[in-house]
Amino acid sequence: MIHIENIRKVYRTRGRTVTALDDVSLHVAPGEVYGVIGRSGAGKSTLLRSVNMLERPDRGRVVVDGADMLALSERDLRVARQRTGMIHQHFGLLSSRDVAGNVAFPLEVTGTPAKERRRKVAELLDLVGLGDLGRAYPAQLSGGQKQRVGIARALAGSPSVLLSDEATSALDPETTGSILALLRRLNRELGLTVLLITHEMDVVKQICDSAAIMSNGRITESGSIPELLARPDSELARGLFPLPPPPVRPGTTIVDVTFTGTDPARFVSALARTYAIDADILAGAVEDVAGSLAGRLRLGLPGSPDANAAPLAHLREHGLALEVSA
């Protein structure tokens, strides 16, 4: 659905250059919720805006729903943008228009007849849970309600792709959860492909099927959530399930185990039964990630890593990612 290949974007200002995107490639499958996470200045917003050509890459390819965005004429680009909705961090609502008027605005721009606009607006407001607030103005709404208006407006053109630019960063945790649940429901009910950027690991944890980590204009890690959690030294796994620094315990092998889709108690007990060893649980972080149990567990095994070669191999054979230290 979204294929980004080797794009580069350099800004030049006051005699200096800033490389916002440095040979970035990304693939988002149809119907997927894909999260791009990174700190401020990592290049996330530039990447997102490159998808609908609000920022035009200096080189590379951007293909959205079969359209090569860099090769389109201005007229065809306007049409392609209608298939891509966008929601913003600070809502971007028109204060002089009521809720219905804000949602109707993109339909007015495309020349949709008034009767059809009214029908579509009512349908969208019901879809996002604001069916009784069409006459309210943005100043009368909570942050979560404003973002729901923004989502309804983004859906006005019946897009196949929804872009989310830090859509929950201005919201409290409870409201964030409700907005993420709405996005996941829309993803499933409408078949929307969702590409979102965020600096919050909890957003990735709650709704993403796949993710990428950005730093200094480059993607350092990407893949489906299960794939990333199955990789030793996964940056995403560390961010999702932080553990304290490993303790110094002479004569003990310290093992950080990353798992997904399994109950950690089962493999710890199986390890103890099979090899007659006491596996101490030193720390752990276990949560539901996109509907599947996942986390990291720190075990202490008596003896050196060489002495524990068989137990460690047993864990790896069961699809667990290990980081081992003495």
TrEMBL record:
PROSITE patterns per UniProt: ABC_TRANSPORTER_1 (PS00211), ABC_TRANSPORTER_2 (PS50893)
Keyword terms, alphabetized: Amino-acid transport, ATP-binding, Cell membrane, Membrane, Nucleotide-binding, Translocase, Transport
Domain of life (superkingdom): Bacteria
Ranges of residues in domain ABC transporter: 2-241
GO MF: ATP binding
InterPro entries: AAA+_ATPase, ABC_transporter-like_ATP-bd, ABC_transporter-like_CS, ACT-like_dom_sf, MetN_ABC, MetN_ABC_transporter-like, NIL_domain, P-loop_NTPase
Pfam families: ABC_tran, NIL
PANTHER family: AMINO ACID IMPORT ATP-BINDING PROTEIN, METHIONINE IMPORT ATP-BINDING PROTEIN METN
Protein name as annotated: ATP-binding cassette domain-containing protein
